[in-house]
Write a structure and sequence with these properties.
The complex is a heterotrimer. By secondary structure, chain B is an alpha/beta fold. Chain B is built from 16 helices and 13 strands. The chains are: A alpha+beta, B alpha/beta, C alpha/beta. The structure holds pyridoxal-5'-phosphate.
């Protein structure tokens, strides 16, 4: 069974969201998502300064046998991305909630509040 | 492990060069090896021995039709009169070749129930691209420019959506029903004035014949759209059912599958396209035209409506000559037997595997030339995956079936024995599959660590992609 | 029954196991109205009969001394090349998706990629595309993925017209515009454009151009760099044994290199199967079309090879793939790799130099004939244009009777070209006596008028 840390919020497309300060959020993919993907070999990161829409693709995650779009859980502006993933894509498998964070976004607090909590996400993945 | 050819270090005898080329256009050095001829011969002969092939192994690779490649076809196609011919040779000096190609065009038209054929596409995917481009040209010629979308079943081969995109179309994927047939309600809902056409193969990639095909054709045509037939599965119905009579407007044939030309470790193929009369004007150039004694390649000026030229010359002629030889050798009765025995072998294996306890994906349906099993039950019981079954088969000298395609069926293997395998070879496959099933339940590690007896153990594809060493 | 091994007892046993009475019953899900027959096709024939028919037809193509080129050349292929390439283990294998059962093909492809990156001076090579012209179309699509805001490709008129037609067929469907750049009629070389092309993604640079003339690739690449255009080089792989590698053109080198692989051990075969190659910078690898092989290890830590970055390809990425290509030209690549290894660096240089020297010799011989001119002043490699006093197609036809395929009339490639121009190519197969024979036969044919 995969980990679903209680303090984070989640999207139905398997991203986790951590509030850094109100209005600024860190995003990654969940443990469940990395299990589905298998060994990640490449991450195409969103660009700093890029405006993104909630539920729209803003990057790509590639494993050996699959390629999936990375969706933004919130609308807003990308303010940072984890450049170290370019050389260490395996962090998405090994440590999805910490070293494997993907990008940070400036977004509306109200949108953040609408995201799933850990129990609801756990439910949605049937675990 | 065999070192690469770049490990050969001798200098050889360098050549003195006298060139009438300005020095700044020349290179200083050429960092390539100089192996001796015997070193080359040994190196590549040894490499060849690390391959599975039809000539050495049973190869039940679904969707790929790995049948015996008759050597007579190779022999006649490589006669010097054909193999030394320059593509710019004028037609007067190429009548024997052009006549053979004209015959092949005619035979393929007859086999497919289509009005006209162009032999030029280099493989199935290029044939698909030609076909959807023809659909685009047809609508545009009628001023119907809003048709920008192609419908494709979810189970379709990846080349279908990729080809539609290369022709500038958007793609909508359609679901299949649990019995393998297309979901007609979904089709009805998807059809509309912006749909240009649908790409189907029949039998479908699920290994079953689409029984509602006439209804599908009526619906699609009724909505002003056209039907494309992916001919990769033609072996199942060769000489029995003609795509043109099923209602298809344009199609490709994979001559490197159905017509027994070799796969060569990846290619070449030939994706000849055939079209009904309303689409024939758009076929890619060039085609062979004329009659006995005066065959020639048609000119571009003669075919102003054509979608144009897809490769520099007229396609993979050497492959076409092999396909020609195959048809000539088998004749119409031989071709009909192909589909009969392809179906016999597939249904025999399907029943045999079901008796052993394997889950057949569409058990209530007839297998066509291929069928799907799912090892989801083994996955649940002992975490063994389709991949592990595939790798274990290799230990027995049997090439793995196609795995994880179509993606619709979890943990699936798509099995296509082809008509050229004997009952004895199928019976051996069944015995091996029974043993693998026992192992999966009793000692799953044997599968997860397979293969054990090949030149290499399981290859680390993750490291390959992360490290990405692709040349030296 | 050709190639079907079942005897009637086996067939009966199998039908019984399935639970049907007759073979036809296996087709009982197919609506009756759709079942038809193909008796209009001929009856089959035995192997001996087939060979006899095809030998007769092959003989209708009389052997000719080949001086035609325009993208396909009559080179010598060492005997071992096809001896090995047609071994069943290469000839009858599928695409190496099951790496453990395909190490032979995979290592060979890795070596091919290494040969091509070294020849072209680039970092990444794919494992082949259909042919040179379609590889160029793929390179253009790749350039537009790298420059998503751009809409245009700049194409010199020095590109072979039949390659240009392939671009015309494949690119506009995706809304891409093709812009022609004129050639200087005197030198036969590309003129440096004076204007800017803000919507263009890339400049195509054919070295050698379609008149056989060598371009000033450094200056052209430099111009493209200063206009922020990607450089797509189009090269003859054998000529690269001598010519500057595209990776060294200009200051930064080419971005993508493509070409027709036929000169590397592939028979002329009336135009195919050949193979296209494509090499590029490492940064662009995720936009690469076609298969790619990587060196890795197996579970025991031994060196092993496998296909990699398959997430670019149609079987995984479907509509979002970098290309629709699946089946490629693997067997031709097998032959080319063995050919490259057999010739080696020295053999390749020798073959290329000989082709060049014989072309120089023939050009000088033919230019002495009355009424024959050389329209272009620029330097040539192994191919050149001859301006004849009579229309080139009829002269070419006249030389057939003397056993020569004298060249390719430019007008047959491009109706707008001068009808008197004939493109003539030499290779290392062109012996001195062939050059003399050609010259005297041409003198004869021209004298007949
Ligand atoms: C169902 C199906 N469609 C299309 C193709 C594409 O054909 P090709 O590989 O010749 O491009 C294939 C085979 O690879 C196939 O199996």
């Amino acid at each position: 069974m995969s980990q679903v840390p209680a303090q984070l919020r989640y999207s139905t497309t398997h991203e986790w969201v951590a509030q850094l300060v109100p209005g600024r959020y860190r995003v990654g993919i969940t443990d469940h998502a990395q299990e589905l993907l298998g060994d990640v070999v490449f991450v195409e990161l969103p660009q700093t300064g890029q405006a993104v829409q909630a539920e729209a693709a803003c990057g790509v995650i590639e494993s050996v046998k699959a390629a999936s779009d990375l969706y933004s859980p919130l609308s807003g502006e990308v303010v940072a991305s984890n450049a170290e993933l370019t050389d260490n894509p395996q962090w998405l498998n090994e440590d999805p909630y910490d070293k494997g964070w993907i990008f940070e976004i400036q977004a509306d607090e109200k949108d953040f509040a609408q995201l799933l909590d850990a129990a609801a996400y756990q439910n949605s993945i049937g675990e | 492990m065999e070192e690469t050819i770049f490990a050969c270090q001798h200098e050889g005898t360098p050549v003195e060069l006298e060139l009438a080329i300005p020095a700044h256009l020349l290179r200083d050095d050429l960092p390539l090896p100089n192996p001796s001829e015997l070193e080359v011969l040994r190196h590549y002969t040894r490499l060849s021995q690390k391959n599975f092939s039809i000539d050495t192994n049973f190869y039940p690779l679904g969707s790929c039709t790995m049948k015996y490649n008759p050597r007579i076809a190779h022999e006649v196609a490589t006669l010097p009169g054909f193999s030394r011919l320059h593509p710019a040779t004028p037609a007067v000096a190429a009548q024997g070749l052009l006549r053979s190609l004209a015959e092949l065009q005619g035979w393929l038209a007859e086999l497919t129930g289509m009005a006209a054929v162009s032999l030029s596409p280099a493989a199935g995917a290029q044939g698909e691209l030609a076909g959807v481009a023809m659909i685009r040209a047809y609508h545009q010629a009628r001023g119907d420019t809003q048709r920008q979308r192609i419908l494709i079943p979810q189970a379709a081969h990846g080349t279908n959506p990729a080809s539609a995109r290369m022709a500038g179309f958007a793609v909508t994927e359609l679901p299949n029903l649990p019995n393998g047939d297309l979901d007609l309600d979904a089709l009805r809902a998807a059809l509309g004035p912006e749909v240009a056409g649908i790409m189907l193969t029949n039998p479908s990639t699920l290994g079953v014949f689409e029984r509602q095909i006439q209804e599908v054709a009526a619906l699609v045509h009724g909505a002003g759209a056209l039907l494309y037939y992916d001919g990769a599965n033609l072996n199942a119905i060769l000489g029995r059912v003609k795509p043109g009579e099923m209602g298809f407007d344009v199609m490709h044939l994979n001559l490197h599958k159905t017509f027994a030309t070799p796969h060569g470790g990846g290619g070449p193929g030939s994706g000849a396209v055939a079209a009904a009369s309303r689409l024939a004007p758009y076929l890619p150039v060039p085609r062979v035209v004329g009659e006995a004694g005066s065959y020639r390649w048609e000119s571009h000026a003669e075919r102003p409506e054509s979608i144009g030229q897809l490769s520099a010359y007229a396609g993979n002629i050497g492959v076409l000559l092999r396909a020609h030889a195959y048809v000539r050798r088998l004749g119409h009765t031989g071709l009909q037997r192909v589909s009969a025995y392809a179906a016999l072998n597939a249904n025999y294996l399907m029943h045999g595997l079901r008796r052993q306890g394997y889950t057949v994906a569409f058990a209530e349906r007839r297998a066509t030339h291929e069928f799907i099993i799912s090892v989801q039950d083994l996955h649940k019981a002992s975490a063994v995956r389709a991949l592990d079954v595939a790798k274990r088969l290799l230990d027995f000298g049997i090439h793995a079936p196609t795995i994880y395609f179509p993606q619709l069926v979890p943990e699936c293997l798509l099995i296509e024995p082809t008509e050229t395998e004997s009952k004895a070879s199928l019976d051996r496959f069944l015995e091996v599959m029974a043993q693998i099933r026992r192992e999966a339940l009793e000692e799953p590690e044997r599968l997860r660590n397979a293969p054990h007896d090949l030149p290499v153990r399981r290859v680390d594809e993750t490291l390959a992609a992360r490290r990405l060493q692709v040349a030296e | 029954m050709p190639y079907i091994p079942h005897d009637s007892a086996e067939t009966a046993a199998m039908l019984e196991a399935i639970g049907v009475a007759r073979l036809e019953d296996l087709f009982d899900e197919i609506p009756q109205a759709l079942q038809s027959d193909v008796s209009a096709l001929p009856e089959g024939c035995g192997e001996a009969r087939l060979r006899r028919e095809m030998e007769e037809r092959a003989a209708e193509q009389a052997p000719l001394r080949c001086f035609a080129g325009a993208g396909a050349y009559a080179h010598h292929i060492p005997a071992i090349v096809w001896e090995i390439a047609r071994r069943g283990e290469f000839y009858s294998a599928y695409t190496p998706y099951q790496a453990e059962a395909s190490q032979g093909t995979l290592q060979l492809l890795y070596e091919f990629q290494s040969f091509m990156t070294r020849l072209t001076g680039m970092e990444i090579s794919n494992a082949s595309l259909y042919d040179g012209a379609s590889a160029l179309a793929e390179a253009c699509l790749m350039a537009l993925r790298l420059r998503p805001a751009a809409r245009e490709i700049l194409i010199p008129e020095g590109l072979l017209p039949h390659w240009r037609r392939v671009l015309d067929a494949l690119l506009p469907m995706q809304g891409i515009r093709l812009r022609s750049l004129p050639q200087d009629p005197q030198s036969g070389r590309l003129l440096l454009p004076g204007e800017d092309f803000p919507e263009a993604a890339a400049l195509i640079l054919p070295q050698i151009n379609r008149f056989g003339v060598l371009e000033e690739v450094d200056a052209l690449a430099h111009w493209a760099e200063s206009h922020n255009l990607l450089r797509i080089a189009v090269v003859n792989p054998l000529a690269l044994a001598l010519l500057k590698a595209p990776g060294d053109w200009g200051e930064q080198g080419a971005d993508i290199v493509v070409g027709e692989g036929q000169p590397l051990g592939v028979p002329l075969a009336a135009g195919g199967p050949y193979f296209g190659f494509l090499t590029c910078r490492r940064d662009y690898v995720r936009q690469l079309p076609g298969r790619l092989v990587a060196k890795t290890v197996d579970a025991a830590g031994q060196v092993a090879y496998c296909l990699t970055l398959q997430a670019r390809e149609q079987h995984i990425r479907r509509a979002g793939a970098t290309s629709n290509i699946c089946t490629n030209q693997g067997l031709l690549v097998t032959a080319a790799t063995i050919h490259l290894a057999t010739l080696g660096a020295n053999g390749l240089r020798a073959a290329a130099a000989r082709a060049h020297q014989q072309a120089q010799r023939l050009r000088a011989l033919l230019a002495r004939l009355p009424g024959v001119e050389l329209p272009h002043a620029g330097p040539v490699f192994n191919e050149f244009v001859l301006r004849l006093p009579r229309p080139a197609p009829s002269v070419r036809d006249g030389l057939l009777a003397h056993g020569f395929l004298a060249g390719v009339p430019l007008i047959e490639l491009n109706p707008a070209d001068d009808p008197h121009d004939l493109l003539v190519a030499c290779t290392e197969l062109s012996e001195d006596e062939d050059l003399d024979g050609y010259a005297s036969a041409l003198a004869g044919v021209l004298g007949e008028a």
